[in-house]
């Protein structure tokens, strides 16, 4: 269940990051509430994952994969550019997350 919790936490993290853009500085009530709920959900499910994972592993994977997901979905929903340099950076983040997963006890 540890990795399921972390996966859910990552989804919440992506929703939080994308939702923050939709709040327009937390001036729009519905997106603001949903964004805050996503933030709380992400922190809660991350805390469940950290019962078994080292914080260095769990937090790094949470932020790394969450960041990649945010960039990919930002490109889809907000038409943000994905350059070759960004693709290389994503590959490094994903490779690091995989290595962390393989070395986690």
UniProtKB/TrEMBL annotation:
Task: Please provide an example of a Pfam family that matches this protein in its UniProt record.
Answer: Multi_Drug_Res
Transmembrane spans: 33-50, 57-78, 84-104
Entries under InterPro entries matching the protein: EmrE-like, Small_drug/metabolite_transptr, Small_multidrug_res
Subcellular location field: Cell membrane
Question: According to Swiss-Prot or TrEMBL, what is its membrane topology?
Answer: Multi-pass membrane protein
- Alphabetically ordered keywords of this record: Cell membrane, Membrane, Transmembrane, Transmembrane helix, Transport
Q: Where is this protein chiefly located?
A: membrane
The UniProt entry, under PANTHER family, shows:
GUANIDINIUM EXPORTER, SMR FAMILY PROTON-DEPENDENT DRUG EFFLUX TRANSPORTER SUGE
Q: Which family does it belong to?
A: Belongs to the drug/metabolite transporter (DMT) superfamily. Small multidrug resistance (SMR) (TC 2.A.7.1) family.
Q: What is this protein called?
A: DMT family transporter
């Amino acid at each position: 269940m540890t990795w399921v919790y972390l996966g859910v936490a990552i989804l919440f993290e992506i929703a939080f990051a994308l939702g923050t853009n939709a709040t327009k500085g937390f001036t729009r009530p519905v997106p603001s509430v949903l964004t805050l709920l996503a933030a709380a959900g992400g922190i809660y499910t991350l805390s469940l994952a950290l019962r078994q994972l080292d914080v260095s592993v769990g937090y790094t994977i949470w932020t790394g994969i969450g960041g990649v997901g945010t960039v990919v979905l930002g490109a889809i929903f907000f038409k943000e550019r994905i350059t070759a340099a960004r693709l290389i950076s994503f590959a490094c983040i994903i490779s690091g997350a995989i290595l962390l997963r393989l070395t986690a006890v």
